[in-house]
Specification:
This protein has 133 residues and is mainly beta. Helix content is 11%, strand content 56%. It has one helix and ten strands, in the order αββββββββββ. It has one helix at residues 6-20, and strands at 23-30, 33-35, 37-42, 50-55, 60-65, 71-76, 84-85, 91-102, 105-118, 121-132. The strands form two sheets. It has a five-stranded antiparallel β-sheet, with no helix packed on it. A five-stranded antiparallel β-sheet has the order 3-4-5-6-7, with no helix packed on it. The longest helix is centred in the first third of the chain and has 15 residues, at 6-20.
Length: 133
């Protein structure tokens, strides 16, 4: 039995997965430990302009644009519901919207350069991200 709809359906599923999956690169050290990020989300779903990066060790970093135009950083240790806001200028964040949208959330892309020490955390390195929705 021929299923003419099968090939287009499979093609569309593969096509979408090629362009909408997160793309992350770079190296960041938190308190001297290298942290590898495996996913990202647009900060708008959490109520801020920026991005949330999730690490393979369970840590999350929220990098946001403050009203002054500087980058704010909040560190969430593994399984923490409440993060620690570092409260100082922690580097730079370039952030832009992409044309694609997933579940009514616009994808964002950008790059963060981290270099600061505050609230018991030392962050150093850089990370680039794309397709964060």
């Amino acid at each position: 039995m021929r299923r003419p709809w099968l090939i287009p359906t499979v093609f569309m599923a593969l096509w979408g997965s090629c362009f909408c999956s997160n793309k992350l690169s770079g190296t960041v050290e938190v308190n001297g430990e290298k942290v590898g990020f495996n996913s990202c989300r647009n900060g708008i779903i959490h109520g801020f302009r920026g991005v949330e990066l999730s690490a393979s060790n369970g840590m999350r970093l929220r990098l946001g644009v403050t009203p002054t135009g500087k980058m704010g950083v909040i560190v969430f240790p593994k399984d923490a519901a409440v993060g620690t806001e570092l409260g100082i200028e922690c580097g730079s964040l370039s952030l832009s919207d992409q044309n694609s949208t997933v579940n009514d959330v616009k994808n964002v892309q950008g790059k963060a350069v981290l270099d600061c020490e505050a609230q018991g955390y030392k962050l150093k390195g850089e990370v680039s991200f794309e397709n964060c929705h």
